[in-house]
Design brief:
Elements: H1 3-22, H2 24-43, H3 48-61, H4 67-82, H5 86-97, H6 106-123, H7 127-146, H8 150-166, H9 170-183, H10 196-212, H11 216-227, H12 236-252, H13 256-273, H14 277-291, H15 314-324, H16 328-337, H17 345-367, E1 372-374, H18 375-382, H19 386-398, E2 404-407, E3 412-415, H20 419-444, E4 448-449, H21 454-462, E5 472-473, E6 476-478, E7 488-489
Antiparallel strand pairs: 1-3, 2-3, 4-5, 5-6, 6-7
Amino acid sequence: MSDDEDFMQDSDQEGYDFEYEEDDDEESGDVDIENKYYNAKQMKASDPEAAIEEFLGVPALETEKGDWGFKGLKQAIKLEFKLGQYDKAVEHYTELLTYVKSAVTRNYSEKSINNILDYIEKGSEDEKAGHCMEEFYSHTLQSFQSTNNERLWLKTNIKLSKLFLDRKDYAGVTKKIRELHAACEKEDGTEDPSKGTYSLEIYALEIQMYAETKNNKQLKRLYERALKVRSAVPHPKIMGIIRECGGKMHMSEENWKDAQSDFFESFRNYDEAGSLQRIQVLKYLVLTTMLMKSDINPFESQETKPYKNDPRIAAMTDLVDAYQRDDIHQYESVLNNNKDLLSDTFIAENIDEVTRNMRTKAVQKLIAPYTRFNLAFIGKALKIPVSEVQDILGFLIVDKKVNGKINQQDGTVEIEDNSDAERLRAMQAWTSAIGSLYHTVFTDGEGFRPSDGMDEVGNTLNSFGGAGPRAVWNGHKLRKGGKGKSAYLP
């Protein structure tokens, strides 16, 4: 071994010994804190109460606030919220916020706070949890307002606006949205392009509010403005919300084509975001296809085909299949056997129009061979009330799709047969055309002149649409000739 190698080896050994001796106590302390933290994590599933106690013991082991204390509090807060210990969760969350100023980095603290807020947002299923979540948002806004973290302030206010929207506190939503719009504007009042993503989230909230309150005028204005935002790369879920509300708006205007387009785009965006709302929007897409009276199966596209056999969408699949086959009995059976389908208010509001279309087509098909029938007979055959049968037939008669009369007194309908009248009109048109031809050829044409006394006969016969039996052509009497034979007498 060379002298240089000996020197390097000795230096490395001396350096290692020096560092180990100096940091021995500190590293030992870190190991104890780390062990306590991971021991608590192992207890989360089996004994959450004991795990909370262990997690809360981590900050006490630190000589000054640091990462492990922050992590311990974060885990304890989530468990407390899960167990319904909302007051303790709020208390320890307030303590956690004191770490964000100096103990942990800005990016890590922001990410952690967002994760906690997302966690409690998903777990808020009752009123107490909702109030706890509101306190979380309030403490977060107070904490980060002083640190001038505008990004987290915007995100938290958007979450708080969603909470107000879920509670249907539209006054609170309106107030928050006004503050958020102001924060996303430049000094001259125009939208700040650098905050385009937040602007779209705010638009999505406002659009949802107007959709719920059925304020279509404001909804349409914001919907069109949101689609014009080009300075952002929005999360697909946000575009899914905007397109879904747009589809509902078009449905209320009976603009089935645009509604179908919006629901398809909404489904595609929700699917990309992995949102469960894609299933509900797919149902809306199927509903719109039926309202359009389209023969195109909505499950034939590349995006929707994987969901054709999904049990959550099975009822709508059966419904559209029955609709496209004009099978009224199968259609009614699917609706009766899937009452939960109507639990969605939007589907319940619009499915009646589809049902009406199905029953109208069934009535037309059933009465086609009859000239007289009872309303009760139609009602029994289609299993629908007689009053609705009468209503459908009244609509068809007014719309001139059925030529008949309803006798309300004895509950019968008589269909007027216009086939003979149509034949007579056709014959009259035919004889008129022949009469015209006669006058053109034998009266007005050069070289043809009726013989003496033939005018009167010709005119008489012309009234029946025929020509006179004889005429004169260049001094020759005409006669009816056979096929391929001369048609005049010398």
